[in-house]
Amino acid sequence: MAKEINPDSYLTETDEIIFLVEEVPRKLRKLFDASTARMDLSRTQWRALVYIFRSPGLTQTELAKCLELERASTGHVIDQLEKAKYVERRSIESNRRVWTLHLMPRAIEILPFLRHEADAIYSRLLSGISSHELLPLKILFKTMLGNLED
């Protein structure tokens, strides 16, 4: 006789929590994609601009680490940003094979818009959550990330 299966055993409280944890970044990505699309940018391109703004002269390899992408994929992102006149590559005199990345004026002009959009999305995300609730949340996420480190 076959063992009767309890349907509740296949969807636990922990599953529901993890599903929620996964759903938040999915929806955030969707909102950011819609927001950056208004500027004809992808979310990855927006992130690249911010990293380059924060660290002018970043190399493609360094940017790839920041974006958590392969170097070739990052090269494609840079190609698109360069074509749109947001970024320029500059060679290093001591090593002509390495290029540094710098924002062009056009990119600097749109940074305030991107900052405003990000702040609006964050405000929506954190609506109804007090600053006292955010610190324990931050600690929880850091602990979870630490638990998953290799």
Describe this structure in words.
With 150 residues, the protein is mainly alpha-helical. 65% of the residues lie in helices and 11% in strands. It is built from six helices and three strands; from the N terminus they run H-H-E-H-H-E-E-H-H. Helix 1 packs antiparallel against helix 5. The longest helix is centred in the first third of the chain and has 25 residues, at 13-37. The radius of gyration is 21 Å and the shape is elongated.
Rg from alpha-carbon coordinates: 21 Å
Oligomer: single chain
Outline the low-pLDDT stretches: none
Task: Please outline the major beta sheet.
Answer: 3 strands, antiparallel
The percentage helix is: 55-70%
What is the chain-wise order of helices and strands? HHEHHEEHH
Strand content: 5-15%
Query: How far apart lie the N and C ends?
Result: 44 Å
Number of strands: 3
Mean pLDDT: 92
Q: Write out the strand line-up for the largest beta sheet, numbering strands in chain order.
A: 1-3-2
Count of runs of 4 or more consecutive helical residues? 6
Overall 3D form: elongated
Classification by helices and strands: mainly alpha
